[in-house]
Design brief:
The protein has about 220 residues and is mainly alpha-helical. Helix content is about 65%, strand content about 0%. The protein has 7 helices and no strands. Helix 1 runs antiparallel to helix 6 (about 140-165), helix 4 (about 65-80) packs across helix 5 and helix 6 (about 140-165) packs antiparallel against helix 7 (about 185-205).
Amino acid sequence: MDLGNALLATLVAVSIMFVAGSRIIYILPIMTLAGGALWLAIQKVPNRFERILAFLDLEAYKDSWGLQQWISLIAFGSGGVEGRGLGEGVMKMSYLPEAHTDFIFPMIGEEMGFRGTAFTVFLFLCIAVAGMTIASHAPNRFGKLLGFGLTLLLSLEAILNMSVTTALAPNKGLPLPFVSYGGSSLMAAMICIGILINIHRQGVHLKPGDLAVIKRKKRWTPQV
């Protein structure tokens, strides 16, 4: 079971339910069950539990389960502000595992420096802002929820990947959208962007007063 993708799907689903107007009293049991299942899945597989321990004390496990994240931090530090130069990184030469897929963000930091990493974060921020803007101008409720979900999916996947590679979250093995090597990841991300563009084409010609608005359901109170 891919725990990282399962966690990502759960976060997106719960967020869509909240935005759609589901009551908190219905969402809390789902979150509780999901949290319990997550903890059970971590405890049943030693590899996952050891990753949690490595995250809590990375320096103590830098030679074992925390090695990948430890070398990732070294790659960021060695790049500095300017970086070594495009294609001049050394950590990808069998030092950092999965440097072309899950841990490609440290390679950006090593070769392009702080400026390259900041620009990458800025581009994902632009995708998030543009996607949410498209969702808010969708012609109907379904389009709004679909646009919101797809934008959140891309944004959360990028945030989780960057958090893992900077040792701000346990190692999960999620790719960085549009950047990590892999045909299926790129195809899924491009499909998300294609659907967002289609939503934009349908909603861009509407006037602001004609746009549908997602409103949370209000509880009915008897009139006295």
